[in-house]
TrEMBL record:
GO molecular function, one term: kinase activity
Domain (Carbohydrate kinase FGGY N-terminal) ranges: 6-221
Recorded superkingdom: Bacteria
Official protein name in the record: FGGY-family carbohydrate kinase
Keywords (A to Z) from UniProt: Carbohydrate metabolism, Kinase, Transferase, Xylose metabolism
Carbohydrate kinase FGGY C-terminal domain: residues covered: 238-422
InterPro entries referenced in this protein's UniProt entry, alphabetically: ATPase_NBD, Carb_kinase_FGGY, Carb_kinase_FGGY_CS, FGGY_C, FGGY_Carb_Kinase, FGGY_N
Any Pfam family hit: FGGY_C
Similarity section: Belongs to the FGGY kinase family.
Amino acid sequence: MGIVAGLDSSTGSTQIVVCDTDTGAVLRQGYAPHPPAPDGDPQAWLMSLGEAAAGGLLEGVQAIGVSAQQHGLLTLDAGGVLVRPALLGNDRRMQASAADLADALGGRAAWAQAVGCVPQAGQAVAKLRWLARNEPESAQRVAAVLQPHDWLVWQLLGRPARRTTDRGDASGTGLWSAADGSWRPDLVELALGRQAELPEVLAPAEPAGHTPEGLLISAGTGETMAAAFGLGVGVGDAMISLGASGSVCSVHPEALVDPSGTITSLADATGMHLPVVHTLNAVRTLRGTAELLGTDLAGLSELALRSNPGACGLVLLPYLEGERTPHLPHTAGTLTGLRRESMKPEHLARAAFEGMLCGLTDALDVLRGRGVQVRRVFLLGAAAELPAVRALAPALFGAQVVVVQPAQWAALGAARQAAWALGAAQGTRSPQQPPLWPTAAGQVFEPGEELAAGQAVRQQYATVREQTHPGAFAG
């Protein structure tokens, strides 16, 4: 038996779990907040890490895995000093830069072919373009670029000359191709106007190095990849995250290059691939409807369950902020099917839940259309606890739904990676086979007898979507 730790530095806190290498059992946990900000001070992450690890939390630990927030850019000068505070999150200041870059390479299809994704405001490539255009003096000082997990690993190792990352986090930069397994320095120059050093991309079980105290530090990864690894998502599974916006991803053996740019072709933390499809409207659809009806999410769920499948003919296309899937950036939401008998609060509530879930099913179907098998869906986010989501999702998704128990899944994924790297280094585990820790526990919901009704609702929704936005999914 060994002991490892997983560290997750998210947007507002550091979570640490200490686990048994063989079983994945959590032995100890630590937590500390840090201030979230679009321009962040990485030193706050280190202070938070120290607070979370206080009281001997890491005593006996042999290896540490690091997960961290994605959509971050840290720029270093030739001496390894930060040029400016970190640029973090899906920063709207970078939207124009992302659109500018998309055109500069020849459009969405060219980017999808190059690196598996179209530039988005959160990606490092867009942040570099913004920096070059808005802070040219800072851009001229940039000698190397890292992401938050890369920087934390580098700090833990004592700031060595070698800087590293992993396939998963690299694939989210817009500068590395999951299909080819290589950086695109030409895209760094396209964005920044000059070259900059990129970190070495490690294999999943390859260690980044050892701390001055002798602790093994594994490759680390981004939060999405770490959470999937912690949950135990495998081939045949999808992971749907219900936030204000939504995301659908699934483990797949191959990179899915999508000329339309709908699929973001990421790598996972195991050597496989993690195609992701995003929607802009998930829980914001429910919150907006709840406000309209003068209730909260729990009240909206209760109302929805008083209605019947199909909401008495009421259909809500939930494109309140425009939409990414399908690609309708400048559209708005649409409510159709208004008749005297359908104009009741319970039917509008039901249409909101059905619209949100059908929008996510559209995203699932994009993956299915490319040969991705989806037999089980892990549903994450506080909205997954709503009775209406649990009642409607299995039949609309056409798959078993697991509503997972809240846990530090990204930290657990980082710990699992640390156990893998430790075992590979000791010769007790194959670099091709990660530890077989338990899959996420949760409540399981089957489509059952509601499947036919759910598919009828899907057809009703798809008909309205096609009439309102003909050809939205064409090509």
